[in-house]
Amino acid sequence: MSRRNWIAVAIGGVVIVAVLAVVVQMWVSLGDVDLGFGGWFALILGVVFAFALGVALMALLFISEREGFDDPGE
Q1: Which of 17, 29, 35, 67 could form a disulfide with 39 if both were Cys (CB 3.0 to 4.6 A apart)?
Q2: Residues 23 and 49 occupy one common structural domain
Q3: Does the reported pTM lie above 0.70?
Q4: SS3 call for 69
């Protein structure tokens, strides 16, 4: 891997760590939040659907590229 790729990976890792630190800080600053069953269910369902949507769109991207749907027309 080239130096440029390592720098990009390092920057991406720093950004991920920074975002996680902000999220943890915000979560802790909320204090003791009582989230009922419906709230947890909605939270988990939202995360699962968002992840599934990302996976599905990436799969469509790879399938489209492999099948040649992105090639210019004749």
Answers
A1: 35
A2: no
A3: no
A4: coil
| Mean pLDDT (whole number) for 61-66 | 88
Range of the domain at 40: 34-74
Burial 3-38 (b: 16+ CB within 10 A, else e): eeeeeeeeeeeeeeeeeeeeeeeeeeeeeeeeeeee
Mark whether 13 and 46 lie in a shared domain: no
pLDDT in tens, 11-36: 999 999 999 999 999 988 988 878 89
Does residue 57 share a domain with residue 69? yes
Give the list of residues 6+ apart from residue 43 with CB closer than 8 angstroms, or none: 35
Domain count of the fold of the chain: 2
CA triplet 54, 27, 53: central angle to 5 degrees? 10
